[in-house]
């Protein structure tokens, strides 16, 4: 079936693989893309927020036909204890703009659409094909792949590994390490269907306006983690994720956490009466800058989640995946246009270009954050949320206690729980990691 | 009532679509007499509850409901407790929404 040789093989048809395949095909390269799912998207899970800017760089007029759900007009951050939430809400009419900046999407549907654009650009896309091994020459240079679809090797000048967080091929070929339990989060998610009007009423939305809730606190039972609720047109995505090593340590179950989150008095009314149509789970890279592996070598580059390019602090991943896929493709096009071979030295231009982009700059900025959150998870995800809730309740409840006394009680509760050095230490550590 | 036991994972998996590759499980547990701590952790952490204790106190895996997250690989592969691959192309879970 595939006897000829390709300019490039892309493994995976997720965000990063589609960006890479599209970019190279548009530039006239002969591209083969392989995806193990029945269709692009059938294995993929996301919240999901789509960031328009990064997609515009690939498909400027994507708003014409992409399956978008709602454009976001409101962001809610909640700090939760078992019975309350304390929130920061930001809503602005400015987000009702002609070219909105963020949308909710349904990932499997979005990927199908994205993949159709890749085909239109001229790439050969083969689904239901799991790549089982990288093919290498006597010097170790990657020269193609083996799949479970047919005997033998398929050859290409360069292989783009866009294989997602598990990254089986790259780890088996020892191009990078297997993700460690303390560097990945496990997220579980459900899709809750409700009539459009009900969703709009629950979240105070009109038309295609959308909203996101991100929540942290006792919902993660002292583990490093976050809950999320995203409003789509006719369904609500709800989920929660925590670091795998924390699950291992505590013996908590992911579905137990999700169930508890769904039954929280602040959450339950939002999804009341809904019909669940899917239950999914996926890993998220959380190691940040320090976990980024070698990004290129002789005959290969790695992009997206497989390269741990995920900004856990800001809940961004798909945009880093798309951008790294696009930049890797541009680097490859550049090497090819100079008629140079796809050696590590020549492909190193990918890393240089990526270092100059927001992808690496943002990850570098927060390089100490993942470790800080993880080693202090009890404080940040259990103690503080409870303290904040008590402080707020003390503040708003009118019961005849003089205000000065109330403030003293609140201060005392913080100092008792964390001590002055603990409080200052935490503030200092966060400020330093954020800087 | 205890939350953990009241959540019926089987009911959740019932919402999902699968194409099961009968007779070719993509995950295998290494034969053992006494399970390691890593293997025991999988009983709880697997979101599809694919791992169970059999009556001899060993850990068994049934992959039919697996949602291919990779969590058990991250925990159980380094110790050699499990062997983990993707299902053959086209098989396994088929997300409609993701
Ligand atoms: C619950 C959750 C919520 C998230 N929310 C957001 C969000 O709101 N916004 C955001 O920007 N990011 C979010 N992310 C992160 C985002 O989903 C990822 O960063 C992004 O999908 C990474 O894209 P990728 O192309 O690198 O990997 P993937 O999208 O995982 O794609 C990898 C592809 O490769 C295929 N594949 C893998 N191995 C093989 C093989 N051997 N042979 C053939 N095919 C193979 C897979 O089937 C898959 O299609 C979220 C993630 C999760 C889990
Ligand atoms: S891959 Fe995930 S769902 Fe499948 S058995 Fe392992 S932990 Fe369970």
Automatic annotation (TrEMBL), chain A:
InterPro entries: FAD/NAD-bd_sf (IPR036188), FixC-like (IPR039651), FixC-like_C (IPR059103). The keyword Flavoprotein applies. Keywords: FAD, Flavoprotein, Oxidoreductase. It holds the Pfam family FAD_oxidored. Gene3D superfamilies: FAD/NAD(P)-binding domain (3.50.50.60). Part of an electron transfer system. Belongs to the ETF-QO/FixC family. This is Protein FixC. The lineage of its organism: Bacteria, Pseudomonadati, Pseudomonadota, Alphaproteobacteria, Hyphomicrobiales.
UniProtKB/TrEMBL annotation, chain B:
Keywords: Electron transport, Iron, Iron-sulfur, Metal-binding, Nitrogen fixation, Transport. GO terms for molecular function: iron ion binding; iron-sulfur cluster binding. The keyword Iron-sulfur applies. InterPro entries: ETF-QO/FixX_C (IPR007859), Fd_FixX (IPR012206). The keyword GTP-binding does not apply. Residues 44-93 form the ETF-QO/FixX C-terminal domain. To ferredoxins from P.putida and C.tartarivorum, ferredoxin I from A.vinelandii, ferredoxin II from D.desulfuricans. PANTHER family: FERREDOXIN-LIKE, FERREDOXIN-LIKE PROTEIN YDIT. Could be a 3Fe-4S cluster-containing protein. This is Ferredoxin-like protein.
């Amino acid at each position: 079936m595939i006897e000829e040789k390709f300019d490039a093989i892309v493994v995976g048809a997720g965000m990063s693989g589609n960006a890479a395949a599209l970019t190279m095909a548009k530039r006239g390269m002969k591209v083969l893309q392989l995806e193990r799912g029945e269709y692009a998207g059938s294995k993929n899970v996301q919240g999901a927020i789509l960031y328009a800017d990064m997609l515009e760089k690939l498909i400027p007029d994507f708003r014409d036909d992409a399956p978008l759900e709602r454009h976001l007009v409101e962001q809610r951050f909640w700090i939760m204890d078992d019975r309350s939430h304390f929130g920061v809400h930001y809503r602005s009419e400015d987000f009702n703009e002609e070219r909105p900046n963020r949308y909710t999407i349904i990932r499997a549907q979005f990927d199908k659409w994205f993949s159709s654009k890749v085909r239109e650009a001229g790439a050969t896309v083969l689904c239901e094909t799991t790549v089982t091994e990288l093919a290498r020459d006597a010097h170790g240079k990657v020269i193609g792949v083996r799949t479970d679809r047919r005997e033998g090797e398929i050859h290409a000048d360069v292989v783009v590994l866009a294989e997602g967080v598990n990254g089986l091929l790259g780890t088996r070929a020892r191009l990078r390490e297997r993700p460690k339990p303390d560097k990945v989060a496990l997220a579980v998610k459900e899709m809750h269907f409700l009539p459009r009007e009900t969703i709009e009423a629950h979240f105070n939305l009109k038309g295609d306006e959308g909203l996101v809730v991100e929540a942290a606190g006792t919902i993660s039972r002292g583990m490093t983690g976050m809950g999320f609720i995203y409003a789509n047109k006719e369904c609500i995505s709800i989920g929660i994720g925590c670091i795998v090593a924390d699950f291992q340590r505590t013996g908590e179950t992911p579905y137990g956490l999700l169930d508890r989150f769904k039954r929280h008095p602040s959450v339950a009314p939002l999804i009341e009466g809904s019909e669940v149509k899917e239950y999914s789970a996926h890993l998220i890279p959380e190691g940040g800058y320090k976990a980024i592996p070698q990004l290129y070598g002789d005959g290969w580059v790695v992009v997206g989640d497989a390269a741990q390019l995920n900004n856990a602090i800001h809940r961004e991943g798909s945009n880093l995946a798309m951008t790294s896929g696009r930049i890797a493709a541009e680097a490859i096009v550049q090497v090819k246009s100079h008629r140079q071979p796809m050696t590590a030295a020549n492909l190193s231009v990918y890393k240089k270009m990526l270092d100059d982009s927001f992808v690496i700059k943002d990850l570098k900025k927060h390089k100490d954050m993942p470790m800080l959150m993880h080693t202090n998870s009890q404080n940040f995800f259990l103690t503080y949320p409870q303290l904040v809730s008590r402080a707020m309740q003390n503040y708003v409840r009118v019961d005849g206690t003089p205000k000065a006394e109330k403030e003293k009680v609140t201060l005392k509760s913080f100092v008792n729980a964390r001590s002055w050095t603990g409080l200052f230490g935490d503030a200092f550590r966060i400020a330093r990691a954020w800087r | 009532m205890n939350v953990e036991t009241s959540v019926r994972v089987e009911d959740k998996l019932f919402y999902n679509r699968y194409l099961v590759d009968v007779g070719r499980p993509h995950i295998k547990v290494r034969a053992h007499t006494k399970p390691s701590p890593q293997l025991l952790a999988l009983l709880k952490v697997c979101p599809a509850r694919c791992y169970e204790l059999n009556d001899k106190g060993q850990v068994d895996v049934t992959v039919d409901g697996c949602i291919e997250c990779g969590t058990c690989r991250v925990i159980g592969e380094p110790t050699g407790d499990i062997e983990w691959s993707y299902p053959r192309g086209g098989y396994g879970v088929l997300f409609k929404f993701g």
